[in-house]
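pasting for ref. prot 1 ->
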Amino acid sequence: MPASQYVLPGLVVALSLPYLASLSTFVQNHLIKRCTIADYRLSPQSYALITGASDGIGRGIALELVKRGFNVVIHGRNREKLEKVKGELEALGTGGDVKILLVDSGEENVDWEGIGKELEGLEITILVNNAGGMAMPSVSFDAQSYTTIEFALRLNALFPLHLTHLLLGRMRALPGPTAVLFIGSIAAEVPPPYMQAYACSKSFLRTLARSLSFDERRLLHSRVQVHYIQTANVQTKLGVNAAQSWDTPDPESYGRAVVRVVGCGTREVCPWWAHALERGMIGAMGEATAESVMLSALGKPKGE
């Protein structure tokens, strides 16, 4: 048989490999994998630190971790909201300790020395970098105030960078597996209109997670698992995702999904099955089509 007859089948196989790999990962993470979060509870003194835990995804993750026997440190900038969440967590009756870390993640001069002392001595085995967000601007990037842009960058990129830098060595030194999670966003792949500061911050976290994972696995041979949690729509009390649906889970359901994928071996993972499917479709449809879908979903004119 002439060699040319192998070219087309070989090309088809080569082009199919990425999709087959994605399908294999989807089946493994969503249909086969069992929750291994108990492996990260090294002792009765193990804590999980969840930033942005006064509401939404952070609160959902904290609820699930407390149910699974972890002590938690919940972070936020509003003490009243944090005290309310603390009461909810303690009411679960697991006997776990709940501590509050009160810090404004977006402020210019965070007291990192003070945070270090406040967390000193805690066996933190899971760090969830969840704090973030940005109200969708109604004006173009150049018309936004630089104060707004800088705040978004500090909140979404610099705060998780500094916090991970502060705790990573301590977590690596523990005698068992630990995990660092960065809550990402589909905005890093299909940026919403006018949200350049937010989108590039999530891309920053994506690259940070990849680089840290490379070091921990290949150079330091540590037991630190690093995950970039790719997130699409999750239900919020206010805003465009107010209604729950098959592709827009409530924060508690999403929190359970996040906890379940910890330790799955996949650095970049979509905990919610519908988000994984949507991400695959976005990757297949091309940039221009993905942008048009985004504009249609937001009710904005597609332009040229």
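and prot 2 ->
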Amino acid sequence: MRILHTADWHLGHRLYNRDRSDEHRAALKWLLQTVASERVDVVIVAGDVFDVTNPSNQAKELYYEFLAGLRGTCCTAAVIVGGNHDSPSLLNAPRSLMKALQLHVVGAADTPAAERVVRIQCREQEVLIAAVPYLRERDLRTARFGETVEDRADALRTGIRDHFEEIATAAVAQRSHDAVPIVATGHLFAAGASDDEEKKSYIYQANEQNIEAGAFPGCFDYVALGHIHRAQRVGDQQHIRYAGSLVPLTFVEGQAARSVRIVDIGRAGEPVSSRKVPVPYARTLLRLRYELPEIKRRLAEAVRSDTVHTLTPWAEVRVLSDDPIPNLREKLLKHLRDVQAECGSETTIELIRISRERLTPHSAMNGHDPIQQQLDELDPLEVFSQLCARAQPSEEMATALRHDFLVLRDWINEEPA
């Protein structure tokens, strides 16, 4: 049986308040073509279908158009689980209708584990999918008065491990015979995984080290993970993998190819064959962080390139300079026009963000750097940490404050019960 493992679509995502719908539409069109050309039997989406819990109608339309498009391929079924960015009730709302179309949705872990084991029959082969979505704390445990941050993290780790053990036991019990393979999903930060430093995790559970690779039950022939946007295996386990995000969510992510994973699975216990399939970019994201002459050179190089862009390239420009540069945007736009006129290129580049960064360390004469970052360049945790540092709390107090902030942020981002 052939499975396509994808995750972290983040439909409805905006980059510096720019709409990404055209990029997502192109990526999902390519995904459908890949399902057809690779003769995929099952599609697994391992969480974060949407970027926010209340996505736009346009984002929902892209989602349903893709699922409808699967009916025109040889794909037998799809399994979609909720991520920390998703609204469980939104995903689950059409669950009964979608199940009749072999589209199995698990928005939250709010039902017994046995009910979240999906049996898929394709031709003469069968597979069981242990569908585990993002595990919220209320799904795992009840907080206790007086417990420390370390106690809570340990309890969460234990709860996550126990949850996977429970659904593994339920899956094994539902096997029609021992040769039926079991595939698990998950949306979490597994120990040993790494992600781009700029991509801040919204998962505070267990200090972002939710489960070790060796802690996944041995009956899982493949574990399809989401949440980390960089495609990778977990530890040295070839069968435990992140597929990576479908489109880059930041300019940092835009410097590396996005991907999905094609997984060929046979009988239970047999080695699983899988390979990474790069997702073509519909839009190039240029991240330029240099002194002004080098910035101009690289912009000119991008204009002169023969690359055919489906969508207008976007650029994030950070000029390294100790001195203010008057009319910086106008100077860069004129430079782009001059290069276009010189080489007759039709390539246009939209400068999404232009900022200046100090080239050399500043002297702390007045205690702060006059070069300020824009608010939308900062992560909420980073802002909180800076404010907390000004108060100079003890290390123990700083850890407790960070813990409480992350609890509150996670609660705000969750859908009300």
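Confidence is low (pLDDT under 50) at residues 200-207.
The longest helix spans residues 149-174.
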